[in-house]
Amino acid sequence: MASAIDTARLSLYARKFITLKQGGTKYGKAPHKPIFLLTLIELIEQQLITANRVVISPELVATFKENFALLVNAPNKDDFTQPFFYLKNEGFWFLKPNPGFLLDTYIRSVQTLSDRLDYAFFADDLYALLIDASARLQLKTLLLDTYFSATKAAYEQVKNAGRSYVQEVENYLLNERDMRYELTLPVADEETRFVRGGLFKKLVPKVYDFTCAISGMKVISSDGLSLVEACHIVPISVSGDDRVTNGIALCPNLHTAFDKGMIGVDERLRVVVSPSLADNMASSYNLKQFHGQPLRLPFGEVHYPEKEHFRWHLRERFRG
Q: CA-based, 20 to 30 A from 247: which of 22, 66, 213, 266?
């Protein structure tokens, strides 16, 4: 049973939620803020947000874009950065910039905003309500009923079926695309590229068991951070391919060496080291120790790197 103070706070935020300041568009009031709040609530429910420190993650951006597509019938642009920034005008959402930056003017680019933001956070009393299942459900229902009564049923049908745009993108990047759920979003959209690029960085180390494919190094901190990085074989600017089959998990020094063409991978999926490389063979960090070594492959052949990508790298980047 909620306490009297909790009930009063819930009533306060219920009023705030149904009177959000919405900019005008030629299609009516902008729906971005209520959709953004619904998205934050959803990620709290899924335990993808577990503390009152919200960062711009691919899951957050993708879920917002999915919810926008499900709830808005008018051709409004689903600008994620708009509600992320302007929600601070409601008095319960705050932005903490990284040192040396200010966040006092609107930033349209999601990557730029992400680079300049340390984290965002709710007022403490609102966050306390949002981590309470009963209060969270009441606020979620209120948002849907107030702003999206016409599309609420279709939205809930998709959510209750366990369908997810994030999962759809992950399946595509993992080369395991499930055609069960198709949500069309603009591929050229900067926010969509942010989502796919962010998921690529997470999925490649995961399928390689957070182990460097060349050195075998595996270092994971107690909070789950890994030193292994996702490396594109053919740069995304050249190929447009951000599937894990165009990726390889490498530790930072080998990532740099691969990008600079100091090392490559041949037809037999064995490491080749540039003969023009001046290397200190006495050093335990020398690259020539890996020459001829077979690549450590990821889980499942569907995730294996494509040999054609390595052919391109040997032809275009490798210093032979």
A: 66
Q: What are the CA-CA distances from residue 192 to residues 186, 293, 311 (Å)?
A: 7, 37, 28
For residue 193, give every residue at least 6 positions away whose Cβ sits within 8 Å of its Cβ, in sequence order, or none.
none
Per the CB < 8 A criterion, the answer to whether 247 and 310 are in contact is no
Give me the residue spans of the domains in the chain.
4-162, 209-316
* DSSP state letter for 246: G
Residue 247 three-state SS: strand
Distance, in Å, from the CA atom of 12 to the CA atom of 238, rounded to the nearest integer, reads: 52
- Three-class SS state of 95: strand
pTM, to two decimals: 0.84
The 3-state DSSP class for residue 176 equals coil
Of residues 196, 242, 250, the one with CA closest to residue 226: 250
* Mean per-residue pLDDT pooled into runs of 10, the chain (320 residues): 70 96 88 98 96 96 95 90 97 97 94 96 97 95 97 92 84 71 57 92 94 91 82 92 94 95 95 83 78 93 94 91
Residue owning tokens 């991978």: 265
Q: How many CA atoms lie within 13 A of 90 on its CB side?
A: 27
d(CA 263, CA 275): 10
As a dihedral over the C-alpha atoms of residue 258, residue 264, residue 265, residue 267, rounded to 10 degrees, the angle is 140
Q: Nearest Cα to 185, choosing from 90, 79, 274?
A: 79
Angle at 64 between CA 183 and CA 53, to 5 degrees: 145
- Phi then psi for residue 51, to 5 deg, are -150, 165
The tokens describing 285, both together, are 């960090």
Token representation of residue 208: 């390689």
Which residues fall within 8 angstroms of residue 299, CB to CB, at 6 or more apart? Answer: 207, 208, 209
Task: Tell me how far apart the alpha carbons of residues 241 and 263 are, in angstroms, rounded to a whole number.
Answer: 21
Report in angstroms the alpha-carbon separations of 271 from 16, 174, 276, 315.
Answer: 60, 23, 15, 15
